[in-house]
Amino acid sequence: MSAVVNAPAHDHHEDHGHHHKQTFISKYIFSFDHKMVAKQFLITGLLMGIVGIGMSILFRIQLAWPEQSFAIFEALLGKWAPDGVMTPNIYLALVTIHGTIMVFFVLTAGLSGTFSNLLIPLQIGARDMASGFMNMLSYWLFFIACVIMLCSLFVEAGPASSGWTIYPPLSALPQAIGGSGMGMTLWLVSMALFIASQLLGGINYIVTVINLRTKGMSMTRLPLTIWAFFVTAILGLVSFPVLLSAALLLIMDRSFGTSFFLSDIFLDGEVLSHHGGSPVLFEHLFWFLGHPEVYIVILPALGITSEVVATNSRKPIFGYRAMIASILAIGFLSTIVWGHHMFVSGMNPFLGSVFTFTTLLIAIPSAVKAFNYITTLWKGNLQMNPGMLFSIGLVSTFITGGLTGIILGDSTLDINVHDTYFVVAHFHLVMGISALYGLFAGVYHWFPKMFGRMMNKNLGYIHFWVTAVGAYGVFFPMHFLGMAGLPRRYYTNTYFPYFDDLADINVIVTVCAIVTALVQIVFIYNFFSSMFYGKKATMNPWKSNTLEWTTPVEHIHGNWPGELPVVYRWAYDYSKTNADGEYVIKGQDYVPQTVPMQENEEDLHH
Question: Which regions span the lipid bilayer (predicted)?
Fold first, then answer.
């Protein structure tokens, strides 16, 4: 009987998948398939990451050996490094574009763009995203934004160079410095397209999670990855339009003579006609996106970690509902803490104390997540594959980076280390390195799902250990530089004899940075060679419970041949025994979500 019932659905699906022969362009370029869009985001993000990391190496060399001549500068920077000595203008531009690329184009797109696209339909049991066309459009807007950002590097007067936070008046007066001209305009156009891409993606993710869950997949049976992506998408929808409005007002100040962010300004002794605006208004608008952005980057990484840690500990995730509550709390609190970036902007001390309170409050849900990961690992049957190592690495950097956040979140303490390397160390650990570890963990874990092959484990181990030691080697000493008062974004500190003693630390940091950057080549090689020559993957290589591992290894548009799976349990039934003390499925320490509950097993979930 069931065969008769299934047959029409199966036939219908065959039609769905093959009613038009896909050309190369419709399959690989303008694809509506969420799995292909995820790969496009990932590969574009990785290529942008190479550019971003390359820039950081250039300006780290400048900081370690200031005003020395390097052939690589002359080769890569041309007129910006006469005789191989970097100019201050290009130093600022490199810092600016490095920050922009890493925060927006690598971490936001590499995590949300890649894994929300790949996993949301697969883990909730949907054929695809709610709108395949919007999904494709989201990627291509992102791609065009990347191209425009890279083009801004080749502008005659130089790329944007007012820091990745683009504070006015540097960013609002085209005549202020070279990088305030065409380079800045291209930066703003690129970001506007990027934001449009994020909004299209975000709407798609939210609608898909709410409307397209398969039968039995209630919100409390969703894997934590999906909860993280869902809240991230809502955060993006709330906060990205604010940055867009700031960018549009900035364009009007630059090109149409308005004064939103400009007040009485003198330039080369000449009084400009602007008055009545406020640069602090721009800070409010920027950071209203800028702080949620930290969590837009870190939440997907934490969601990926939840999945990888539970799977490789062979244990149910500890405190599932507390984890959901902490994701929701982080999402809400992240929208009311933006003022802690502005403690030294002349903010009313009472308002400062309010932002201090909300900032310290966000430590609670963050700590819940850290404790829950540690408790999941505790006494687990740990499978130490590269994905698991990067997930554990994330827990480590999330805690060390978070501890310094308590100092920076307190207005009285922050004033002492504001705009020093202490801040650089803090946010690179908690946001940059933690998010990158989440990205790597996700790539190692879901690579078999994306490409049907396994990545090389031994190269993965080399990649992890060198990166882990190197990343701490870069950012741990920076805390001491910051406490000694070394300001960030200075092109050289040789004019201040007070800082002479710190020069050696800068050399150590730079050497660690170069080594860490070089080992990423191992990852890139592993990634691209495994795509073609990796060991063929089985259907469920990690023995995982979630729905994506029930789809065939060969990709089909629509994910499942025949009917969609039905869900009977949560995603974390690992090492689960029934009343007789035996595994629920004989000889198997995991129970996929599609296996019905048996009479003699209790539901751990409740």
Answer: 41-61, 90-115, 136-155, 186-212, 224-252, 285-306, 318-338, 350-368, 389-409, 421-447, 459-485, 505-528
Spatial separation of the C-alpha atoms in residues 288 and 280, rounded to whole Å = 12
Q: Which residue has the tokens 């870069």?
A: 474
Residue ranges of the alpha helices (H) in 101-131?
117-124
Q: Which of 373, 364, 375 is nearest to 406 (CA)?
A: 364
409 Cβ partners below 8 Å, 6+ apart?
Answer: 337, 340, 356, 359, 360, 363
Amino acid at 266: F
For 35, residues 6+ apart whose C-beta sits below 8 A from its C-beta are 117, 118, 122, 450, 555
H or E segment and range at residue 98? helix 88-100
pTM across the whole model: 0.94
- 27 pLDDT exceeds 90? no
Sequence-distant (6+) residues with CB within 8 A of 11 are: none
**Could you read off the pLDDT of 289-300 as tens digits, one per residue?**
999 999 999 999
Contact 388, 308 (CB under 8 A): yes
ω into 316 cis (within 30 of 0): no
Which pLDDT belongs to residue 360?
96
Averaged pLDDT, 508-533: 98
Taking alpha carbons only, the member of 375, 405, 209 closest to residue 298 is 405
Q: What is the pLDDT of residue 62?
A: 95
Alpha carbons 11 and 339: distance in angstroms, whole number: 57
Angle between helices 279-313 and 224-255 (to 10 degrees): 160
Alpha carbon of residue 171 to chain centroid: 25
Q: Which two tokens stand for residue 105?
A: 């184009």
CA distances from 531 to 40, 448, 535, 536 (A): 14, 9, 9, 10
Report the C-alpha gap between 239 and 235 in whole angstroms.
Answer: 6
DSSP state of 115: I
Residue with tokens 């504070």: 167
Q: Are 191 and 184 in contact (CB under 8 A)?
A: no
| Structural domain 28-262+274-547, CATH architecture | Up-down Bundle (1.20)
Q: What is the mean predicted confidence (pLDDT) over 346-368?
A: 95
145: exposed, middle or buried (Cβ count in 10 Å: 0-12, 13-18, 19+) = buried
How far is 329 from 103, CA to CA, in rounded Å?
A: 22
Domain ranges of the chain: 28-262+274-547
Strand partners, 590: 574
- Token pair 């029934």 is at which residue? 578
Q: For residue 448, give Cα distances in angstroms to 443, 532, 537.
A: 9, 12, 6
For residues 310 and 572, the answer to whether their CB atoms sit within 8 Å is: yes
Kindly write down the DSSP assignment for every residue of 280-316, as one continuous string: HHHHHHHHHHHHHHHHHHHHHHHHHHHHHHHHHHTSP
Backbone angles phi, psi at 128, to 5 degrees: -165, -175
Q: Tell me the sheet residues that pair with 585.
A: 588
Task: Identify the H or E element spanning 266.
Answer: strand 266-267
Average pLDDT over every residue of 347-357:
94
First to last CA, the chain: 35
> CA angle at residue 206 from 127 to 367, to 5 degrees?
115
